Amino acid sequence: MEKDRKTPGSNSQDLRTLSRRDVLINSAIVGTGLAVSPLSWATTSDRTHGTFDEGPVMQQRKLGNLVVSELGSGCMSISANYGPPADRAEGIKLIRSAYEKGVTFFDTAEVYGPHTNEDLVGEALAPFRDQVVIATKFGFDIEAGGLNSRPEHIRAVIEGSLKRLRTDHIDLYYQHRVDPSVPIEEVAGVMRDLIKEGKVLHFGLSEASASTIRRAHAVQPVTAVQTEYSLMERDVERNGVLAACEQLGIGFVPWGPLGMGYLPGTLNGQARLDPKTDLRAGFDRFSPENLAANTPIIDFLKAFAKRKGATPAQISLTWLLAQKPWIVPIPGTRSLNHLEENLASVSVQLTSADLSEIQTALSRLKVHGGRMNEMQMRVVDQAE
Q: For the domain that residue 225 is a member of, what is the CATH number?
């Protein structure tokens, strides 16, 4: 799959001069390694509190030493970026429904909204704050535009996130995008200090390269790495990120596990996304031409899912869960029906033959269109 990419280090001045509008529209995205001891990555046999009307109870997984539900909840789309914001009361109801069904891992970010998603998540989870893991992110300068991971900026913005989230600590604090103007060792040092102070419990990185992950981990252990990963976007299998996570004992959190809405099979060549409220409208993969060109992928998933008595979305999530026991996808939705569909994927079983069939079929199909636009890719760390 060909993508127009640039090295972040060569564009540091460009990143600093991105407008505030660019930040809000273009930075709010939020996807087979080495053998390790089975004890270090075993899925726990404990189960969370929630149950389904049919099927198994949600199991738990470990990101490093952080225990979370095997599926998390990506909360961004409730407030921003995939259309106009949902009704606040409905958003709170959705998040609480996820908790009631066994989800204990909720993902948000300062830039989603901006700020409004953190505030929503904080209110929704307040009644059971001690029973859940909240992940949020820093790294953009919402007022000035561009990236900003300077130590003083991190210390300033965490206070706002804590207030909006109605908590005295952040369970997992990700650097949202690697800032090429600030050595990752400095960022890791600030995280080490915030962890000592109790304001942060675990350090995470988002869209970081394998070399950056290793450098950060040497200063302060990284608990989780978040990057786009799905049946349609598999760069992390090839660029060393998954291998680095496995070698270092770091968990992996795929964002966009349903291809940013592609894989459920509800979009087609006639779909038109609103460029004013939906950032995917500017992504090449979501052009009408490429939506049509990628139809064979969706057709395969639909046919395969039908044979398994599942949906394309469920197969997509189950496939990710089957890759490694330390992978925790965070599908996002604003629909209760889609939430229930996604969570039911934990009851779908894929055999080794199933996985081989999926691999063989997809290896013969080309994915048309890059995963994000040029500006988005400029803030993806691709250091060697």
A: 3.20.20.100
> Considering only CA atoms, which of 264, 255, 249 is closest in space to residue 233?
255
Domain count, the chain: 1
Burial of 147 from C-beta contacts in 10 A (0-12 / 13-18 / 19+): buried
- Supply the pTM of this predicted model: 0.87
Per-residue pLDDT of 12-68, as tens digits, reads 444 433 444 444 434 443 332 222 222 233 333 333 444 344 445 799 999 999 999
Instruction: Count other C-beta atoms under 10 Å from residue 144's C-beta.
Output: 14
- Percentage of the chain lying above the pLDDT 90 cut: 75
Q: Give the total residue count for the chain.
A: 384
Q: Which domain holds residue 342?
A: 8-378
Would you please indicate which residues are annotated as catalytic (active-site) residues?
Answer: 112
Q: How far is CA 55 from CA 91, 112, 142, 344, in A?
A: 25, 33, 43, 7
Contact 350, 318 (CB under 8 A): yes
